[in-house]
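Researcher: Checking consistency across runs. Here is CPBP family intramembrane metalloprotease again:
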Amino acid sequence: MFEQMKIRYFVLFGFIASIVTIIVSSLIYGSEFLENDTLFTNILSYTILGVFPFIWFVLQFKKQNKSIFDVIHFKNISHMLPIVIFLTATLIVFSLGAFWLSSYLLSFVFPSYVEFLLQDDSLFAGTGISFVLTAIYVSFLGPIAEEYIFRGLLLKRLGAKINIVASIIITNILFGILHADIIGAFMFGFILSLIYLKTNNLLLPIIFHILNNSIATLLAIFDPPTPDFLNYVTITQIYETAIPNLIMFVITIPILYVFIKRNFHVIS
């Protein structure tokens, strides 16, 4: 189903939808739309990872006499849920370590960029309805849309055009680039790709993604106490917290390696 869809059309119409959204929103809200970062981000996000993908995929599946629900099903997923939960926890730890590692390595080349990443806490900067919209987008809407786009359209279409190995690498490099934690996001996307290819059920990656993002959202909202080595906000502190962060990164690798090895046959 995804194999028959054209990536270039998705990108083209997505670009057009974004331009139209910016123009219409500017007419409605005036200069506030461009000056208010939270308003701009929410409206554009709900367009790019909300209204537009939903309409586009509905129409694409309709052309094939299918539904967007034909790629997700609830049958025989209960036995996979414990694995999903365990891998989610493992990947959260891996991502924390990977973010430290990438920040550490980049600090020698692009220190100003690393300082920007460490100080950027604007994700939930809004209040009231804006705050709620951001939380819903990050926790639910974004994960669903990203799974249809990355694990569905890109992975399957590129796999049909070239081969599945190249597809899984290219798709998840793109997925990583679009997230602050490139290494962690690549591994996250890679694991989700294996799960989708193994089960041919997009619901499991969607559940995985929602669970991961919801945990991140709750942590950002409630800001519970965390170990000191996770609270680095300067490059100097990155160096000072090297050992515990590196240990956290390394201990997850054998777990992920075993899972990848046991399921690598789906792309080989």
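Researcher: Does this match what you'd expect to see?
Model: One thing to look at in this run: The two ends are 21 Å apart (CA to CA).
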